[in-house]
Each structure stands twice: as structure tokens, then as C-alpha cells.
Inverse folding.
């Protein structure tokens, strides 16, 4: 069974640009959650989608948005990039909603904002 | 909102020494999960604890869930260099909504051979 796939793995953007990250969950998993990881900041929860609906949202500005498609694939978008948005963005999938079971993480998309 | 505190932030040990990381939640948890992230890698699930006072073992790793379901610990006996990484706990709040996934800030373990 293929794992969680995130694309792109690495990207460099400049301030003010926008970026879209993609996540393909494990087949059969309906929940996708996104996390931002920066050195010393741990894993900051961005949002969670289940069956195409956003179920939970973290404390991030409106520049961060996401969506989930009918095939459970998910995208997140960050508009008007700031230097502080440089981070590893991790996607995790699970069969159920919330921490009802194991989260399977992808390798992440490492974003650098110059 | 719910907070999950994890201590210590860093731990340096000599190979063969024991290691413990602690996780404390401001609210009662439905369950708690532990993950390990190797340097340059992504978090990998270790275990989930659900019951009050639950203790689970995986070889040299012992996981405990507090009686009040607000704290947890991970203990590694006789650390090895392969134990290097950051250990995260993640707590699910005990309410009707599945709730956000709240991770602790992690404990980074380094092991000196």
C-alpha cells in the first residue's frame, strides 16, 4: 500500500507570492490534516479535512487555506507569503477523524521564502 | 484552548543510560499518541494509549497514561544510538467534537556512543 505522498518536496518562493501544496493520502483514508513544523516550534496544527469538509482549524491567519477533493486528496494554499512561512509542511492521513487512530505522515514539503 | 506541554525540550544521554519524556495536558484527554521523528524524517506513529493508568511496552520503550488522563510519559531503557530523534506526544481532547490534534513541542534525544 502506498504511503502518504506530498508534492512538491522542496520549493523556494519569494515574499508576496502564493504557493499550493498537494497531499495524496493512503488509499481508503478519508481524513487529511496539515501541520506546520519549524525549528523549535514543534508541530502546529493547520487544519483537518474529512470527507471534503473542514472539520477543525488551527490558529493560523486567513492566508492559509485548504481543501479536500472527493478522492480524499488535499491541497493547502498559502497566499501573500511571508518570510516566517518558511517551514516544513506535513500532511497526515488517517482512516477516521481526529486522533481516533494512527496518523500516517508524508515526507513533507519544505518551503523556503526569500 | 487545549495545551499540551512536553518536557524536557532536549535530552543528551550517554549510550546505555535511560531516558524519559513527559507530556502534560491542560484538559482531560480521550487518548494520547506518541510519535518519533528521526533527524530529517517525518513523524512515525509509535503507540496510542486510551485507558486511564494504561501501561504499554515495546521492547525497551515503556509508555504510561496517567490516572487522570491528563499526562503521559515515554521511558526508554538503556538507550541506543538508534533512539536518536524527536519524540512527540499528541493528545485528543475529551469532548463531543473529534477536536484538533494537539502535539507537544517534542523532546529531542541525542545519544552519545
Amino acid at each position: 500500500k502506498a504511503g502518504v505522498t506530498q508534492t512538491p518536496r522542496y520549493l523556494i518562493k519569494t515574499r508576496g507570492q502564493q504557493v499550493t501544496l498537494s497531499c495524496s493520502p493512503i488509499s481508503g483514508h478519508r481524513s487529511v490534516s496539515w501541520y506546520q513544523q519549524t525549528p523549535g516550534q514543534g508541530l502546529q496544527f493547520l487544519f483537518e479535512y474529512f470527507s471534503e469538509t473542514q472539520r477543525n482549524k488551527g490558529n493560523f491567519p486567513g492566508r492559509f487555506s485548504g481543501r479536500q477533493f472527493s478522492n480524499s486528496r488535499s491541497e493547502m494554499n498559502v497566499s501573500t507569503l511571508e518570510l516566517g512561512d518558511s517551514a516544513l509542511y506535513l500532511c497526515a492521513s488517517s482512516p477516521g477523524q481526529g486522533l481516533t487512530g494512527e496518523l500516517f505522515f508524508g515526507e513533507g514539503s519544505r518551503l523556503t521564502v526569500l | 484552548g487545549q495545551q499540551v506541554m512536553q518536557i524536557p525540550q532536549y535530552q543528551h544521554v550517554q549510550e546505555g543510560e535511560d531516558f524519559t519524556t513527559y507530556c502534560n495536558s491542560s484538559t482531560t484527554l480521550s487518548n494520547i499518541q506518541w510519535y518519533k521523528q528521526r533527524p530529517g524524517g517525518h513523524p512515525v506513529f509509535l503507540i496510542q494509549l486510551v485507558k486511564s493508568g494504561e501501561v504499554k511496552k515495546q521492547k525497551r520503550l515503556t509508555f504510561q497514561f496517567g490516572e487522570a488522563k491528563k499526562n503521559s510519559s515515554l521511558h526508554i531503557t538503556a538507550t541506543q544510538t538508534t533512539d536518536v530523534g524527536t519524540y512527540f506526544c499528541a493528545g485528543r481532547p475529551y469532548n463531543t467534537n473529534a477536536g484538533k490534534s494537539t502535539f507537544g513541542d517534542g523532546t529531542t534525544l541525542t545519544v552519545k556512543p
Summary: The CA atoms of residues 84 and 113 of chain A lie 8 Å apart. The mean pLDDT of chain A is 92. Chain A is about 0% helix and 55% strand.
